Each structure stands twice: as C-alpha cells, then as structure tokens.
C-alpha cells in the first residue's frame, strides 16, 4: 500500500510542476531518490507520464491523465460549451485562453486556445495550478465556501516566487478585491514569467470552472489588466448562462 501511495503522490507532484526531474521531486516530497525513481518508472510503464524534451531527464503528464479526468468529472460537456466562448475571447484579446476546473485544492487545465503571437505561455492539458498563486485559482477561491477558504488559507501559504502571496490576511484582502472587481490577476505569482487574468464560472452553490487570458508577464500592464478583466468576466458569465446558471 505504501508503494501505491508514494506513486500517486509522485504523479500528483508531476502534474503540479511538470516538467520536473527526480532530484526536485525528491526534495519536494521528502522521499529518497530511489523511491521516486521507482514510482516514475512505474508511471512511465503505465502510460501516465513521459520524458520531457531536453538533455536533462524530466517528466511530464501524458494525455491519459486528461482523458481519465474528463470521464470522471463530466468535463467534456463543459469543454464543448466553453469552446466557442473561448474562441470569441481569443479573438477579442489575441492572447492564449485557458479553461480550468477546481479539483480539491487546485485547478486543472482542461482546454486551451493558443495565441498566434510568437511569445506565448505554453502549458499542457492536465496541468494543475495552485489556488492561491494563479489567476484561475484565486478566481475560484474568491467564490468558494468558508470551508474551502479555511482549509486552503489556514496557515502560511506555499511560496513559488517572490510575488506569491503567502500571508493569510493578505490573501483574504486579495480575494475581497477579486469579488469586488469580478476578476483575478496573477502577476508572476506562480512562475515569474507568467501573467494572467481570470474570472470564475459560478454555479448555483460553488465555482464550477474558470476562464483566463494568459500572457507573458511583460505584456501585463494596468491597461491590459482592465481590458482583459472585462472581457474574461463577460465570457465567464456567458458560459455560466449557457450551462443554465443565472
């Protein structure tokens, strides 16, 4: 049983940080490298992960994880409803558009439409993002129930970059700003080069998804934040209405 749990922990960490190598996984999980290596070889043989490109061996998810996730959560219907709205959002912003869904204490990328611009944000389907350090995650967190907020923001939050909000009081204030203006902004809080603006797709009781405009942080300005925020908020409301939510 311990080996199975270790393998699943390695799979979750690969999903959250891909591409990632044995050494980094060992440090993040507090496991011996030999244990991590055995888990990676098992996941590779089962078709869940694959070696990423590059001279140093690093690992990334395969599409098998996305396919299983889609069947488990019914995300395929959501993706079908969202795609034309995402197409319109990409046309309006000329940037990469992401659709994510909440899953436990993270959000998972289930659909993306890429910009034609040469400098872009590239992220594989099935990638998991932290709730407190991504625009999609913060948009979802801002509209989540008190039980979720208490669980996620109970203690000091994990730091990914120098811009990550780690103080619980600061995070609560950030979530209040998101609720007031209707969208969340990530200014290099998860990765220093990644900027994004996102809005939650809110169901009758909780957020069911989030849409985001994703750009290199160098293109994220106060002007673009406002424009993208308005566009993605309208798109999120349109998707909620299309799914039958007021």
From TrEMBL:
Pfam families: HTH_IclR (PF09339), IclR_C (PF01614). Residues 1-63 form the HTH iclR-type domain. Residues 64-245 form the IclR-ED domain. Coiled coil: none annotated. The keyword Transferase does not apply. Keywords: DNA-binding, Transcription, Transcription regulation. PROSITE patterns: HTH_ICLR, ICLR_ED. InterPro entries: GAF-like_dom_sf, HTH_MetabolicPath_Reg, Tscrpt_reg_IclR_C, Tscrpt_reg_IclR_N, WH-like_DNA-bd_sf, WH_DNA-bd_sf. This is IclR family transcriptional regulator. The lineage of its organism: Bacteria, Bacillati, Actinomycetota, Actinomycetes, Pseudonocardiales.
